[in-house]
Amino acid sequence: MGLVLSQQSAADALLDRDPLALLIGMVLDQQISLERAFLSPYDLVQRLGHDLDAAELADFDPDALGAIFATPPALHRFPKAMAKRVQEVCRLVVDRYDGDTAAIWRTADDGAELLRRVAALPGFGKHKAQIFVALLGKQYGVQTPGWAEAAGPFGQPGSYLSVADIVDGPSLLRVREYKQQMKAAAKANAPAATPAPSRRASRAPAKTATTARAAKSGPAKATKATTRKPAKAAAAGTRAAGKATTATKAAKAAPRTRAAATRMPAKSAMPAKSGESAKPGKSAKPAKSAKPAAAAKAAAPAKAASVGKRAAAGKAAAPAKPPTAGTAATARKAPVPASRTKAGR
Fold it and tell me: What is the pTM of this model?
């Protein structure tokens, strides 16, 4: 009885006779249905036009191989990525096993070594390697010593846990049901996904951080501000005091300026002609200007006295004139010289 993994006879026949086709089908068995995964090697043969060759695929142009995988219908959900994966597997087969895919399990001494070789292939984790070992042992006739133990739970007979147990339609349904149960359990046990924060929510922490920084730096800023305000107030007070001092000096200087202004008329007050005594000017109001005026008054009597002496001497020397008519009346009417009046006084 041959493999029935792809559920198509031509594709399953290729899996039976070509180890590389079986390996490539196992590589592609992820994130797509297992029927499509094991059908793709057959489609790849049809597109290449000949049987698969590990050396040819290892040296194939990566872009050209990716285009072949991507041609509709695509050989995989992620054609370019899986084309690269298949090429990496073929390179390892060429480098380690001289391009002979069957040498991977044919030359293995036991199941443990076989598991190590399969797990070393690109894209094979522990479970996938165990499933492939179970498939080789259950349906491909590769039963090296210890293969069932190496395959773990997938090596147990009648488990229906993987492709290793698909031999017909009903077994395919049982395996698919098991996989669905496993996916549901994994989804239920998975931690709840945290919803992506909205733009407003993502901005909130930044604002909180900013507020925290502001709160943290607040006392320092307040201290600086408190320190600066007294300094500014002191500077303003100093400037105000300076202005007040200047105003006081100006106020003190004002009387001296007025005094200087009032002294000018006192200095310019000259004795009157014809022996008139000098009087202080009308503008000589301040007391300081009285000193020059007092000196002028003191000098006035002395001058008047000297003028009186000269007048008396002149009278004594002049001969008496005979009186004429109207002389007495004229004499009475004639004004008395100011010098004589002051001298008499």
Answer: 0.56
Within 10 angstroms of residue 152's Cβ, the number of other Cβ atoms is 17
Which backbone phi and psi does 29 adopt, to 5 degrees?
Answer: -80, 75
What CA–CA distance (Å, rounded) separates 247 from 243?
Answer: 6
Which residues contact residue 97 at a Cβ distance below 8 angstroms, ignoring those fewer than 6 apart? Answer: 103, 104, 107
**Residue 43 predicted with pLDDT over 90:** yes
Helices (H), strands (E): how many in the chain? 15, 0
For tokens 């007391």, the residue is: 287
For the chain, report the end-to-end CA distance as a whole number of angstroms: 175
Distance of alpha carbon 332 from alpha carbon 335, whole angstroms: 8
- What distances in angstroms separate CA 282 from CA 91, 255, 264, 265, one per listed residue? 131, 19, 12, 9
Assign 23 a pLDDT band (cuts: 50, 70, 90): very high
Name the burial class of residue 146, with classes exposed (0-12), middle (13-18) and buried (19+) by CB atoms within 10 angstroms of its CB. Answer: middle
The tokens of 309 are what?
């002496």
pLDDT at 218 over 60: no
d(CA 152, CA 160): 13
Distance CA 191, CA 304 (A): 133
Give the Cβ contact number of residue 14 at 10 Å: 24
H or E element: which one contains 213? helix 199-268
280 — pLDDT class (breaks 50, 70, 90): very low
CA distance 59 to 122: 17
Cα–Cα dist 72/41, whole Å: 15
pLDDT of residue 193: 53
Inform me whether the pLDDT recorded for 227 exceeds 50: no
